[in-house]
Amino acid sequence: MDPNFVTNYFLGRIFDKTGEILKPKVEAYLELIKPYLIEKSERQQSSCLIGFGRCGGNICEYVQEKIDEAISQEGEGNRNRLSRLLSAQNLRPLSVNPLIFTVDLDMHAFNEKSLIGERNSRFNPIELESKGGAGHLQVSGEHQAYKYLSVAPETINSKNWQNFFTFLVNTAGLKINPTKMYFYIFSSGGGTGSGMSSVFGRAQKYAISERIREASKTNNIKLRESLKDDKVGLVDAPPFSHSLCVLPNIPNKLKLHNHIFLNTGRLLCRLLSNLYLENHPQSSPPSAKGVRSNAFPWNCMTLISNYSFAQQLEGESLEPSVSIGKFEKITNDFVAQQIQNLLLAQIDPKEVSKKDWEKYGIGRSEIIKLDPADLRTNLWGLNMVAYNEKSTKEAKKHPISQLFLDSLQPPSISAGASKDAPIVRGLSLMPIKAEKYRGIFEVESIEKRIKALAKIPAFRRATSILTVISLPSEDFKAEERDFTKLKKYNTQIFENAKSRRYAIILSPRNEMNITTFICGSAVCLSQEILMHLSNYLSRVFNDKSISGQALEKLFYSFINPCLDLTKEERLEKLNQFASHLLEQEDLQVYTTLPMDKFKEEEEGLYAISDPKGRLKIDELAVRKEEVLNALTEIIEIMDHEIEQNVPFELEPVLY
């Protein structure tokens, strides 16, 4: 059975061709968002954060704290420009103050987050009780996501789930739902996060696509009238979905058989296959409903590496438990800061004084309000993010062009305003081997640094660059020539980018910061990404005809940009590699239970009463075809990256 069965199953229920079934869904939605609406503001733009698993839930909590901190300054005598703007425009509830959902199959996590929900009505933890949660298994989280989507939401004993389903699926793409941005936040190594997030993202994408498809072809007059209605009608442009994925730390490469790392490799393999099929639509036939069953779940996914951040904590005299807790908070806070900047960038630049940007040499055509249309154009596929910040006092001594250049450095940790709140600056994922990348920034000459950075595949093949500049208090002055220099650096480092956009926002704190999203498929050439893929394939797809170490060595014989191989030679080695792969992943690797027992327990959780409608766990297994799609996608990228002077070096996993 096609796993897309479940999607088609629930789409058939929620999209009645008469349009009548939409009306009760709209009423349920109005009840849900009533606490967040201002009079006559139902059509204002809004955002939604969905945190999956422990990591995603914690990051949502940090975002909420940051937004609350920014808005709380409104009552102070020296309130900042952001607070005044929010008050004047009455934007707080919907524009920059998102509705938050957290999803976790672990009831203990739900109980923790429910305490936050009691204090803050915007924070909505969803109780999805499941015996043992997802058990750190991505395939289990994926399977249970399909289970919840395949039945009528009112049959699930969870009020918050019904609200969530209404918000995410039933009203997505309708005028009554003002949500224009959805952030999916999770860790790649968790069972709930890495398993459920992509299923929910794809379900929302399918629901919106199906409504648009049906609306475009229908001859049903009643339905046409319903679609024009102010409440149940379709929006002019679908919402933008952005996932932020935290990759795990790798403390010991000898332990890469752990589920955390296998989940990560599995997720990356499947998503790269999705991207290949989007780039080669002829290879992905439409489903019976006309929606491609292997679509990339979101518009884009930003990768943040715990491994890169953790390396900066080496040598600190901290107890292991303290170090891990501190390190996780630092990483989560980094992610939360990037989300906050995107949220604040929704404020229309016309509302910011012309003096705040005109004097800096940034033209009106370059400054954008980051609405869904802008984001779809500038953020897509895989990307990484660079970040840097300085206090207003420091910013006066460091030009913003230098702030931009330093944001591309390897992550560094420095003291923040509070001893307990250190700041992480730098790039979220190392594009080449960390030691070599760090060496670029040890060169004194800025010109030589820029030339070296411009040769890195992820930078040279970047397709679009989106920079969000957060300006500090009104007494801060920047020189026009400094912004001109920033744009010059941007052009020199990302010389092939087709789009470079800048959004100026008002800093809620006494600081200046800069966030830059670097988009392009060459992001997947990061050593860390390739290491997770080789580890996953050698442990879960090996048919045992050769050892795992030999299979991994074969993997790196063609997945290496430094090797002067033609595309045909790489594909020939790929075929040799594929001859040692199973037809689908070995699910037994994930569990100590006998496979029959494992399948019985998993499928016993399924809620569809009709046995013919039950999705078998085997049907969610990654197939060999997907592996070949993913690796072909990488080879096509490397076909452009065979120059001998590319500072690239790969380090195989040690068994």
Question: What report would you give on this structure?
Answer:
- With 655 residues, this protein is α/β, with parallel strands linked by helices.
- 44% of the residues lie in helices and 13% in strands.
- It has helices at 5-14, 22-33, 53-72, 81-89, 92-96, 107-119, 138-149, 159-170, 191-217, 221-228, 259-279, 306-310, 320-344, 372-378, 392-395, 400-406, 434-440, 446-454, 457-460, 480-493, 527-540, 548-556, 567-578, 595-604, 624-638, and strands at 46-52, 99-104, 123-127, 179-187, 240-247, 300-305, 381-391, 412-414, 423-427, 464-471, 499-506, 511-519.
- Helix 7 (138-149) packs parallel to helix 9 (191-217), helix 11 crosses helix 21 and helix 11 crosses helix 25.
- The longest helix is centred in the first third of the chain and has 27 residues, at 191-217.
- Residues 1-24, 36-43, 74-82, 85-94, 286-292, 315-322 and 641-655 have low confidence and may be disordered.
Quick tags:
single chain; 655 residues; alpha/beta
Mean pLDDT: 75
CA distance, first residue to last residue: 37 Å
Number of helices: 25
Q: What's the shape?
A: globular
Q: Quick one: how many beta strands?
A: 12
User: In angstroms, what is the radius of gyration?
Assistant: 24 Å
Low-confidence segments, given as residue ranges, are 1-24, 36-43, 74-82, 85-94, 286-292, 315-322, 641-655
**Helix/strand class:** alpha/beta
Q: What proportion of the residues is helical, as a percent range? A: 40-55%
Q: Which percent band covers the strand fraction?
A: 5-15%
Report the major sheet.
12 strands, mixed
